[in-house]
Design a protein that fits this description.
48% of the residues lie in helices and 15% in strands. With 400 residues, the chain is an alpha/beta fold. It folds into two domains: 5-201 and 384-398, 3-Layer(aba) Sandwich (Rossmann fold); 219-381, Rossmann fold. The protein is globular, with a radius of gyration of 22 Å. The two termini are 16 Å apart. GO terms for molecular function: glycosyltransferase activity. Residues 32-199 form the Glycosyltransferase subfamily 4-like N-terminal domain. Keywords: Transferase. Pfam families: Glyco_trans_4_4.
Length: 400
């Protein structure tokens, strides 16, 4: 399909494209869409990434090959509020100039900070605002202990959230649970903007099944960072119960930076060092390690804001045919794992629940069809190709 200038999309991301998230959750979606719409990205790059000339040049070459323009701005970290306010003002000014020059019909904002910039662009140029929420950001700040519930920052952010929703021409959210919850919000009800659910997707060309894991040892896996939202102590508690059922059990953790904290957590949980293997891997190497796992964990602190979360590792596990242990209260996780029989969802974090989970998990793993169900579920729900297609449908609709 040929590109038309009046369908230009200006994409704003407060995450840097040189970060793993920027590459997997921004660039990977936009590359296949660039043949249909002229796309220009404004991102905010961390200082260390901006100083890496080779990686910056490689990203420019990748985007240029796809026909995507790029304006990388400097990200400012501290002091937090003034630094973010400066970035918003600077980003809004730069983005407005780009929107006018490119005749952008859509400004696509990834999350709340970028959406504040996009709102200024919309008001200055008339471009339609696609508010890609990614989660309930103000509530995440409270649930994560960064802001007090009744504090000025939270109240101000919730007010701005309402302004963004009332001004959005289209909203994208990650989960059906969050879409249902938003129906209760006064700001949403006042306008009822069209809303599309697009979960966090994975490149299933990379995250695909390989040879089934060896029968022994039994390998329970974990991929990603530990701490903050991911409940690694609880994951180790579950593994300790699993290892009582399977004396050969080993835990494989794929993690780049938190090795000291992981060893400390394992010692607290009474997990012997000989049962634990930690490997650091680049993104492209992760599927090779997933192929060794019989099951893997994605256990997240349940909180109000987490109903809007779609864990990336869930898509990656299932794409590789690995059943997942998650927990209730996190996006659509329980509905997916339990409803499609590709894993199980914990409802509590205690020994009785872990014992019951162990029984259910080993019964599930004995089902010869479970790997195919995992792969099929990933293809249906979490395909990067399908996610890009859904964004393309929004672009086509809103560009009219």
């Amino acid at each position: 399909m040929s590109r038309r200038a009046n369908e230009a999309v200006l994409y704003l991301s407060y995450d840097g494209l040189l970060e793993p998230l920027g590459q997997s959750q921004v660039v990977a979606y936009l590359e296949p869409l660039a043949s249909q719409h002229p796309i220009h990205i404004v991102s905010f790059e961390k200082q260390a990434d901006r100083a890496d000339d080779d990686r910056m040049a490689a990203m420019r070459a990748r985007l240029s090959a796809a026909g995507i323009g790029w304006t990388p701005l400097a990200y400012h970290k501290s002091p937090t509020v003034p630094a973010t306010a400066y970035d918003i003002a600077h980003g809004a000014l730069v983005a407005t100039g780009l929107a006018l020059r490119l005749h952008a019909s859509i400004v696509h904002a990834r999350s709340y900070v970028a959406a504040l910039m996009a709102l200024a662009v919309k008001r200055a140029t008339g471009a339609k605002l696609l508010f890609d929420m990614r989660g309930f950001w103000p509530d995440e700040r409270v649930d994560g202990g960064l802001w007090p519930k009744g504090g000025a920052l939270y109240r101000g952010a919730k007010t701005l959230e309402g302004v963004l929703i009332r001004n959005a021409d289209h909203i994208v959210t990650l989960t059906h649970a969050s879409a249902r919850e938003m129906q209760r919000w006064a700001a949403y009800d006042a306008r009822k903007p069209p809303t599309t659910v697009i979960p966090t997707c994975a490149d299933l060309r990379l995250f695909r099944p390989q040879d089934p894991p060896a029968a022994t040892p039994f390998v329970f896996g974990y991929v990603g960072s530990v701490g903050t939202w991911y409940l690694f102590d609880e994951t180790l508690d579950l593994f300790r119960v699993l290892s009582r059922r399977r004396p050969d059990a080993r835990m494989l953790v794929v993690n780049r930076r938190d090795h000291e904290a992981i060893h400390a957590a394992a010692a607290r949980a009474g997990v012997e060092g000989g049962r634990l293997e930690i490997v650091a891997a680049e993104h492209a190497e992760v599927p090779r390690h997933l192929s060794r796992m019989h099951a893997a964990a994605s256990i997240i602190k349940p909180a109000y804001s987490k109903i809007a979360s779609a864990p990336t590792k869930l898509a990656e596990y299932l794409g590789c045919g690995v059943p997942c242990v998650g927990n209730a209260g996190v996006g659509d996780v329980e509905e997916i794992l339990e409803g499609r029989r590709v894993g199980l969802a914990l409802r509590r974090f205690d020994d009785a629940e872990y014992e019951a989970a162990a029984d259910r998990l080993f019964a599930l793993l004995a089902d010869p069809g479970v790997r195919n169900r995992c792969v099929g579920t990933a293809a249906e729900l979490f395909s990067l190709t399908a996610g890009a297609r859904d964004y393309g449908a929004i672009y086509a609709r809103e560009a009219l």
